[in-house]
Specification:
The structure holds two protein chains of two kinds. Chain A is mainly β. Chain A is 0% helix and 58% strand. In chain A, the strands form two sheets. In chain A, strands 2, 4, 5, 6, 9, 10 and 11 form a seven-stranded mixed β-sheet that branches. Chain B is mostly beta strands. Chain B has one domain: Immunoglobulins (Immunoglobulin-like), CATH 2.60.40.10. In chain B, 0% of the residues lie in helices and 62% in strands. Chain B is built from no helices and eleven strands. Classes of the chains: A mainly beta, B mainly beta. The interface between A and B is medium-sized, with 21 and 20 residues.
Chain lengths: 112, 112
């Protein structure tokens, strides 16, 4: 069966520090991968999606970037965090773009 | 741009009462998905509707897709405390199947 891992579960970082969040999927190959951010009590904002290794589409301009160095690995990064980067970061995967998405447990990021 | 509006934003019900959330798109959707997010958790896929006028049931949950494929609804009969959470609809624009467009969700609180 397929599983999706995200770490860390929680993270507190100072403003201006770098960020690296990792997501890995097991039990499937060539998945579509997604990074979302959810502010407290709000909806899901798609940040990046990838249909293959090295293929990244960015949805919103920001100080975040994403990379997909391996088929089932998706990384979200920032060189310098802003206060507004705080939120709940969710990684998800799907077999095809139009199929259901499966979410990881998420990372709660607080930038102080 | 494409939008999916979801109403109401919040709903409080007494246990045993019915609950409905509505989803309306500014464009025709090729399909629509529903997800549930428990407090503190991640979104979990519930169902996908594809056909115009489609109705699907999962125990006490009834999902409908409008004839014009621009709106959808989720109805819960006789709510239980386990139904607490935020319900999201998300649809694929018929002209752009790469990206899922998310509603902002309806948060349901159930008083025992």
């Amino acid at each position: 069966s397929q599983t999706i891992h995200q770490w860390p579960a929680t993270l507190v970082q100072p403003v201006g520090s770098p960020l690296s969040l990792e997501c890995t999927v097991e039990g499937t190959s060539n998945p579509n991968l997604y990074w979302y951010r959810q502010a407290a009590g709000r909806g899901l904002q798609l940040l990046f999606y990838s249909v293959g290794i090295g293929q990244i589409s960015s949805e919103v301009p920001q100080n975040l970037s994403a990379s997909r160095p391996q088929d089932r690995q998706f990384i979200l990064s920032s060189k310098k965090l802003l206060l507004s980067d705080s939120g709940f970061y969710l990684c998800a995967w799907s077999t095809e773009s139009y199929n259901e998405q499966f979410f990881g447990p998420g990372t709660r990021l607080t930038v102080l | 741009g494409q939008q999916v509006m979801q109403i109401p934003q919040y709903q409080h019900v007494q246990e045993g009462e019915d609950f409905t959330t509505y989803c309306n798109s500014s464009t025709t959707l090729s399909n629509i998905q529903w997800y549930k997010q428990r407090p503190g958790g991640h979104p979990v896929f519930l169902i996908q509707l594809v056909k115009s006028g489609e109705v699907k049931k999962q125990k006490r949950l009834t999902f409908q897709f409008g004839e014009a494929k621009k709106n959808s609804s989720l109805h819960i009969t006789a709510t239980q405390t386990t139904d607490v959470g935020t319900y999201f609809c998300a649809g694929f624009d018929a002209g752009n199947n790469r990206k899922l467009i998310w509603g902002l969700g309806t948060s349901l609180a159930v008083n025992p």
